[in-house]
Design goal:
Layout (H helix, E strand, L loop, with lengths): L3 E6 L3 H14 L3 E7 H9 L6 E7 L1 H10 L9 E7 L5 E6 L1 H5 L5 H20 L1
Antiparallel strand pairs: 1-5, 2-3, 3-4, 4-5
Length: about 130
Amino acid sequence: MSYHFSKTIDLGFDEAIEKTTAILKEEGFGVLTDIDIKETLKKKLDVDFRNYRILGACNPPNAYKALQAEGHIGLMLPCNVIVQEHEDGTVEVSAVDPIASMQAIENKELGEVADTVQGMLKKVIEKL
């Protein structure tokens, strides 16, 4: 089982960030965190890395359901979506598959939430 959904899109990196963020919002997600890996690695290690951002997406109603169903599920929240520019200039957007990431947890209620969120994240990737 793959742990992500991905799509290569015909946009520049900054445009991809904007479009991904807008589609996440349309699908009920807010972006709680935005980690610029390129900037962080330059600052912390003085190394050059490609454009790579991790967007921590959260759908509050489903996050609340997950937290009610499983007290430690915050370890897996928010749902990460990455936008990365490959060496050949192509831009890829990927979203975590919450079912794959939570399959080790045996909790039916949590499984239902993961199934719902999986469908929502698939829609985000499909809309790009």
